[in-house]
Each structure stands twice: as C-alpha cells, then as structure tokens.
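Notes to self after the Tuesday call (sharing in case useful).
The group wants a holo model before anyone commits to mutagenesis around the pocket. I volunteered. Ligand is succinic acid. Logging inputs and output together so the record is complete.
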Amino acid sequence: MVQAKKIKNWVVLGTGGTIAGTAASASDHTGYTAAQLGVAQLMAALPDVDQVLGGDRLQVEQVAQLDSKDMGHATWQALAQRCQHWLAQPDVGGIVVTHGTDTLEETAWFLQQVLPSAKPVVLTCAMRPATALAPDGPQNLLDALTVARHPQAQGVLAVCAGRIHCARDVQKVHPYRLDAFSSGEAGPQGWVEQGQVRWSGPCQATEPHAHAPQALAQAPADWPWVDVLHSHAGADARQVHALVAAGVKGLVLAGTGNGTVHQSLLTALNEAQAHGVVVRLVTRCAEGQIVGQPAALQLAPLGLNAFKARVSLMLDLMA
Ligand code: SIN
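Result:
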C-alpha cells in the first residue's frame, strides 16, 4: 500500500519592509512608503506558490507592519514568540519572515540567539517596492519558501537575490542595488537557482543563548540598554560620559583597523568600566575580525559586526 504523503505546514510571518511597500509610480524605486501591504496580500499575489508547496499548506500571519529602520525590542520579542509558537507545532516544517532590508541582519542574529535551530527560519526582503515595474520581492519570497522547505535547512537564514546567507555573517552592504547583502569573507551559505537549492556547506546547528528565556519573557522596557560607538578621527569622550550618566549598561565600540581605539575614548571607556558599564570591542572594518593583538578592551565574540555584537551583549546582560 502506498503511504499518503504527510502534509506539512509552512508559516509566513509579515513584519513590513520594502517588500510590502508601495509607490505612486511604478518607476519610483526610492520615493515609496515601506510596510503598506499585508503579508496575506503579498502571498496571494505570488505566482507558482502551489508548485513550490507541493501539496503542503501555508499559514500566514502579520506580526508587525513597519519600516525596519524603526525596528525595536518589543517587535523582536513578539516575532520571536510567534516563531517559538509555530516551531513547536510538530506539523510545521519551518518559517519565512518578510522583513525590511535595513535591519534584517540584526533581527536575523537576534532570532538565531533566542530560537532553537532544528527547523529553519528564513528571512527575506526586497529592495524595490511591491508596485515597481519589476519588483524583486516575489522572487525572493518564492526562493525563501524553497529554502525553508529544503531538508538540509536549519537555523536562521536570509535569502535575497538568489543567495542564502547565515545569520552570523549576513550584512547589508549596498543602499540601492537588488543584491544588497553579503556574507563577507565567509561567502554565502548557498544559492537558489531556478527553484533548486545549492548549499556551499552544511548549515550550522547552534544552541540558543543562555538568556534566551529572558529575551522571550522579560518586558522589553527592562532589557539592558546597550549602545554602539565608533572610534574615529576627532572622537570625543563626552559621548561616553553622557551615555554613562544616562544609565547605559553596555557599550560596543567599533574600533579602527585591528581594534585600535582613540586615546580620548579609551580613557573614558576605562572609566565607564570602573563604573560597571560592560564594554566590548569590534573592528569598524567591513571585513575580517580583530587578530592577534592584546586588545585595549575585551573583544566581542565570533567576530560579529558592531550591531550584532550589541544584540549579544544585551543578551549577556539580561539578568
Ligand atoms: C526597511 O528596511 O523596512 C525599508 C528598506 C527596505 O526594506 O529595503
């Protein structure tokens, strides 16, 4: 007897972004408003989705509707809670999240840190609004669904312009072109070509951060305040003094080159540490990570960029 295929559910969570944006004119790629169309509308307009689903079911939910420049901790928590809910359903195979491109890498890293990685959560986006003459969102969405359904997919991934990136490495590197993301020296995790996934290597299973339960439950208003500073010519220590006086709990310093820090900032940061502020150092260079030197300050882990290091330090400091 032929066994009936087990029907799976795939979930698409909408959070807004350019992928859901509209413009007055089809040729306008910059003067649009992000987060105007619901994720159900985006899915309804998608051709060939039944073909990609292969008889499986799709569940669609609007978690937020915003321009991702305005992403905040409350939305992150709500999104993580909905992911946690759906991933716990045995019949759910994985999740696709539609997201703005501007802070996608930060959301990806936050989700990677707080969710179990056995099933995939695939973030996707667009650089052109949905009303453009040739929008990129529909293809990215189909590709993201294809990746989520691939048996080797796990953890948090991002899919844009035919390339698959892992949460740790993905970074927006261009303000306008369609292929706006890069995984830097690591290279992409894979590609989606004509509906087929080609991996460059296995997806890494990772353990959630020890404080993931706090991030999922603790009121976001009570999350520790962690901010990002840059070392640069003419850097002024007054910004450090102001942040410490205002109650900052953690600071990520994007240092120059191989983790060097302007002397005026270094003095102020050492004073901040003496007051209990936790400081972590990354490089402001677009590629690579700090190598070899006894750094002036403690390094952030994993060679993260400043904005992902901020997420990790915030989680570290959650009591
Ligand atoms: C956003 O990040 O929400 C707007 C920009 C974009 O999605 O490309």
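Two things stood out.
The longest strand covers residues 57-66.
The longest helix spans residues 73-87.
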